[in-house]
Design brief:
Four copies of one chain form a homotetramer.
Chain A lengths: L14 H7 L6 E4 L2 E3 L3 E7 L6 H14 L3 E3 L18 H13 L3 E4 L3 H7 L5 E4 L7 H7 L6 E4 L6 H12 L6 E5 L15 H10 L4 E3 L1 H5 L5 H10 L4 E5 L17 H17 L3 E2 L2 H11 L1
Parallel strand pairs in A: 3-4, 3-10, 3-11, 4-5, 5-6, 6-7, 7-8, 8-9, 9-10
Antiparallel strand pairs in A: 1-2
Helix pairs in contact in A: 2-3, 5-6, 9-10
């Protein structure tokens, strides 16, 4: 690891620009009016896997009313076993298109290959690179050529330096819209799926101007701890959250144990709003909602 | 680890009582009016090691004015190397006595043997068992016989189950005033001293009624991240904090890199107060201070 | 992880066959007369990165004389930083071709994408999937369609179950010639690059009939420990080794600290030969060499 | 950890002497004619816990015939839970005395406090400090004053530097007969109890002249892997082994899953003997046994 050095490739390099602005977070635009890295937190929520139209419509309807900034949903699923459910695949594209238009929500979806990037290019507003692919350098180079933002999830046992170097693969390709995401690291305790490393959020904010999200769903792996850790993430300086949420969690085709119900999702937003305010941030369209509420009364 | 079972030893057992009250946190009294586990957070602060009278007087004077609940300071220091500074030793007792009386602050100090327990019994209001001794079962049995509260720090790579079983050694000895303390676990990333496992705070709160503190100083090992992680700890549900603070951090005889200056300590309290409020807690004598301030104005 | 189950896809499935033969190791043919999983250990050695013709010729000349079974050398290098040396790239293909023909040694090289598979398909006798790509499932599916053997390296923090599931991606694609390789896992001790998990070799041998290699070079990261750990790996039941070796280690363009000189490589073979014999194995062409030696005398 | 420096305390210091002799292993005498660190490996075996006279007599009878160097058996058991079996306690002392005299085998037993040291002082030839007490510095200082050898087991997540510093606590107290023992480190894989870090054996041998044992029983936690890993340990340079063995493993009061039967113990010795020879070592009284066998025939 001593071999890391920052050689700049002319226009492609991003590192020198960042050095001057480390204190300030770079604002990454997701779609018109929806940003990551601004005072307003970016909340991304939705099912782990896109299952069917009813599921996605119900999710989008609820989440857009709640003021969630973007809708997540994977159509290609990276799975430990080849015999586990691998996602709805290309059939999910039209479905995502329809929900996206209907509810005017930007869409975040994971890609694992160039073919998948091409397949979802039109519908996807943000490309997610999952933990298992954090050091899939060929894939990083591919998304480094895109003109859309990329959420890069930290590898299961990636050091912070390796995480930043992986981001550098995307940045040095020319794509400056990189968003980091801490999602728990592998450790020895069996009581949670992973260990949520919120110290990494604080450290990252001191080393880079890239915005940092936190995914408490994958980190803990148990729905009952998600809202609490979401609040802790905001207090630690996160610029937003990625949360799994499902109309009927128990029937989710994957990661059912960690998905929030709509009521729990509402509870999460209610819980983090005052913490966000306490650290000088705001939770999305909450003000808008309150305004609406006041008009109604 | 499959061998763990809960056999109850009549009056000595505490486990069955707890099962019924897991949702509510047990309130552990530190000294008159100072509690851990109540709505008001318990803040413990002070130098890593007791060095001299001037250092302790300056610390106590500042921290008591700030509304800190208890003063920490080790006179016996567990050190990785036998050739490192081992603490002021028994000479520190009179010094602690004096500062304690002068500033009316309860004192927290670490013990590593029965002899040390006996030596500091009078002056110490709370006994701390350090991470390296979390499974020093003979020591746990000793403090299980005491009539004073014990802060049990999580071992460097202790699972949550092992942590609770270690606490059970103290509880089953009869001492019901046990306070748990998460202080970072060992992991692979060299950028911080340890990984602060705030998920463990949430998990512990769901499994036991014992109050849980967080020590962000040892966890991160770098002063610049302590205040941020203190806020995240409160958001995660911690019942208080243990923070290292020194009149002149750079001159601290141990762990200088992680000690807060008085200004930074003031900043920490200012930073966590609104987060505490956001989660329905309060930061100690802050209300009292504000009242004083209002009277003065 | 509880989601793993073995659904069989008709002809593609390999799992049921293996269940009956777990005790016996599957023999994977590398090239004519060179096997992995047989009584004779498979030794693979060579430079980390292919640098130039002189380097590769010198290596192949020495290693073939030593009775090494296959020559390794990467032309595409996965690197933590995009600014580190990325390998000689496609220019290395002709070079590998030439050395391969001249010294009649099969060649092992790493691939990270379908394009790279296509590029090196003719020259490569064995495809290596590196640790960082162990869960790059799209890549695993690609090599699952090949008619050449694949060495799958364990991910930095992959459990044994995840390792076997990753192998299953290749096997279920139809490619039955999969060789596992333990190369050290990530841990907390800074004194070696990784922790060589030789217990995993024993566990793997009890769970699968796939042959298991060990890479002591990447595991320890320091040349002085490679020969000793190579011997321990053979004693633990490894079916062979992958060792980095360079004509002039200090001038190696990558991983210089762990590469063996030719003298050290000779020392390694001398050291492991009696251990191999002690566990009922043999070190490649050693018998052949001895025979030659006897003829010569 | 940057604080480690080697200040020498005159006659008490051992570090400077060692620096000159690192390549050669210090020979620690266990009892007359039984050494650790010599060409002949030291094998220590016996039950995890001393249960009753019949168990210990059967064990000692078998193990002494097998040429095992010392008998292990704990009478005080460190247990994760206070409700687990805590050992036979002081009642076991007379029992150990009797077996020791009858079979003329030196005895190794674990101590966790000064009281226990005093209780077993007469009967114990070697004091074992367990993993959980590796950084119980007060206990290390106590055994540093003894005139008997000490086996110091590596802590569950102790770095090699911390391990050596813990040994230094004993050495600097004046006791030069310290034996290190690698027994597996904590990691993420649930398939074995711990990860046996045989690389640490090689690294330790390059840093200190203290002899190094390996305990494959606690490391893997499953009896079927113990003999294989014992062989790997010898190949890695270990100076001997600590192995759990029980007349009826399934009925062992603790750690039943990892104890070897007598047949398996015999198998272990048979398996490691040729590996020992391959690395220039010998397995204890094997030569003696063979001699006896030849006389008998």
């Amino acid at each position: 690891m001593s071999e890391i050095s920052f050689k700049h490739h002319g226009a492609k390099s991003s590192r020198s620009d960042r050095a001057e602005t480390t204190a300030k977070t770079r604002i990454v635009e997701i779609s018109e009016g929806i940003n990551c890295g601004a005072r307003e937190l970016l909340l991304i929520a939705g099912p782990c896997a896109v299952e069917d139209l009813e599921q996605m419509e119900a999710s989008a309807a609820f989440l857009s009313r709640l003021g969630i900034g973007a809708l997540r949903g994977c159509i290609f699923k990276p799975r430990t076993s080849p015999y586990s459910y691998q996602g709805i695949g290309a059939d999910g594209i039209a479905l995502l298109e329809r929900v996206k238009r209907q509810f005017e929500m930007p869409v975040v979806t994971e890609v694992m290959s160039r073919e998948q990037i091409e397949a979802v290019y039109e519908v996807s507003d943000v490309f997610q690179i999952g933990s298992r692919n954090m050091q899939n350098f060929e894939l990083l180079k591919e998304v480094g050529l895109l003109d859309k933002p990329v959420i890069l999830k930290r590898g299961l046992s990636a050091t912070i330096e390796e995480f930043l170097m992986a981001a550098e693969y995307i940045l040095s390709g020319g794509n400056q819209r990189v968003i980091l995401c801490e999602r728990g690291i592998r450790s020895f305790d069996p009581s949670t799926r992973n260990v949520l490393d919120l110290g990494a959020v604080a450290v990252l904010k001191s080393m880079t101007d890239l915005p940092v999200l936190v995914d408490p769903s994958h980190a803990l792996g148990k729905s009952e701890f998600v809202a609490t850790m979401a609040g802790a993430a905001i207090a630690a300086g996160a610029d937003g959250l990625v949360v799994e949420c499902h109309p009927r969690p128990a029937q989710s085709v994957s990661d059912a144990r960690q998905a929030l119900s709509f009521d729990e999702m509402q509870g999460l937003v209610d819980a983090i709003a005052p913490i966000a305010e306490a650290v000088g941030r705001s939770v999305g369209q909450r003000e808008f909602q309150k305004a609406l509420h006041n008009i109604a009364c």
